[in-house]
Amino acid sequence: MPAGKCEEEEHPHLQPDLNFCFSLSMLFQDRVHVSTTTNLSMLEDVRCELRCRSVIIDAIPSTRIIERLDALREPNHRLPIIMLYVYSAKEVQLDQTARQHVDSVFYKPFEINVVSKRIEELLAS
Fold this sequence. Notes:
The two termini are 26 Å apart. The protein is built from five helices and three strands, in the order H-H-E-H-E-H-E-H. It is of the alpha/beta class. The radius of gyration is 14 Å and the shape is globular. Helices cover 40% and strands 10% of the residues. The protein has a three-stranded parallel β-sheet with strand order 1-2-3, covered by helices on one side.
């Protein structure tokens, strides 16, 4: 499916941490399908191919990541995006900028139940 023709459907969260993906798969096994990619350049294509209703990205904020986040939302400005990363006091500006481009940020380590609750809230809205 071309990148510009995304449809919303009960589908995945894109995230490279396989342990976290396994946890999400178990937690949401009756509601969503969890898919992963470690290739950031393919993220938009994978999102469209799989018709995601939300995206979880595990990446340290950078200008490149923020550009990717904007591209993910281009066809659907309401696409919920959750970002996970280890907070760095050296990157306060990038942290603040990233927060303006996502629905939620969770710093590692985090409680899976807290992330789970937020996913439920975003999918319900």
